[in-house]
Design a protein that fits this description.
By secondary structure, the protein is an alpha/beta fold. The chain has eleven helices and 13 strands. The strands form three sheets. It has a seven-stranded parallel sheet, sandwiched between helices. Strands 4-6-9-10 form a four-stranded parallel sheet. A two-stranded antiparallel ribbon has the order 7-8.
């Protein structure tokens, strides 16, 4: 099973609001062997956040080797036909490097209101979109009569470069999310979970998949992990804990992240590997002026340890 190290970020993790920092980051990742870049997705947010599909389209033209994806795309905020067309187009022009990972969105009713989508419909819309988008990528003249979406003899062209279509990974750390991955997903990309919780989630997904008469590939379980290099674990935590994405304040950053020396960070990743994860999105938890340096260290000191397997 191949282990791969990618990276990504939330918001805008650079010193100033200049686009050149984004492209420096992308160029470092492309040149130094990082497997993939993953963009978080917020349509409405208090801070600066780029629209993820727009950035991924730009990355398709900027890079030649790396894969890229959403971590994760708020699926019900989009129109399924338009989104299927966007993903197919980006996958086509990049030669099959688009990796959509999706979810039901945040717990903010205001974001759904701003996008004209009833908050209470987010789970149902997500499930229906997953089915419809795969049909649009693989079938001719798709007629769909669902609860939320309708199409009549719709054919999308170009088709995605990946055959039969791009794998759709699903985020989330609830039992409902595990059930959705088992029934409808091609992979799982959770965040803010301990290694033990990830192992329990994988076991649950396998059960739900078996109940649906299907399976999720064993190398399609991932994890989003915050990290920070330092001379010691204590120093890295002091420098990086304040920048960690705290969706679960009941947990310490080191329980769900990787902090310290290269050996400490590799050990933390190994704890997730032992539970069944093999694809990682590493998010630098550091001061904005340190993001590029942390990324370079990730590429230099961590990526070779795992990609050589």
């Amino acid at each position: 099973m191949k282990i791969r190290i990618g990276t990504g970020f939330l918001g805008w993790p650079f010193p100033t609001r200049e686009a050149r920092y984004l492209w420096e980051f992308v160029d470092v990742c492309e040149a130094q062997g990082i497997d993939s870049i993953w963009m978080s997705d917020r349509v409405v947010s208090p801070g600066m956040t780029l629209e993820s599909m727009s950035v991924l389209a730009a990355m398709a033209g900027r890079t030649k080797r790396m894969k890229f994806g959403n971590s994760v795309l708020a699926l019900p905020l989009r129109n399924p036909t338009v989104l299927a067309k966007e993903i197919a187009t980006i996958d086509f022009i990049s030669g099959g490097r688009m990796l959509p990972a999706v979810g039901i969105g945040t717990d903010s009713p205001a974001e759904f209101e701003a996008c004209g989508v009833p908050f209470k419909e987010r789970a149902g819309r997500t499930d229906e979109m997953l089915v419809l988008m795969r049909r649009l990528w693989t079938e001719e003249k798709v007629t769909h009569r669902g609860k939320y979406y309708q199409t009549t003899e719709v054919t999308l062209s170009p088709r995605p470069a990946q055959k039969p279509c791009p794998p759709i990974w699903i985020g989330g750390r609830t039992e409902a999310a595990f059930r959705r991955v088992g029934r409808l997903g091609d992979g799982w990309l959770p965040s803010s979970m301990t290694p033990a919780e990830v192992g329990e989630g994988i076991a649950s997904i396998r059960r739900h998949a078996a109940e649906s008469g299907r399976s999720v590939p064993e190398d399609h379980y991932g994890a989003i992990i915050g990290y920070c290099f330092g001379a010691s674990k204590a120093e890295a935590l002091k420098a990086g804990a304040q920048y960690a994405f705290r969706t679960r304040p009941e947990l310490r950053p080191e329980e769900i992240g990787a902090f310290g020396t290269a050996e400490d960070i590799a050990t933390a990743i190994e704890s997730f590997v032992a539970q069944g994860s093999s694809k990682f999105v590493m998010r630098a938890c550091c001061a904005p002026e340190e993001t590029l340096g942390q990324t370079e260290r990730l590429a230099r000191e961590i990526v070779p340890l795992f990609h050589k397997r």
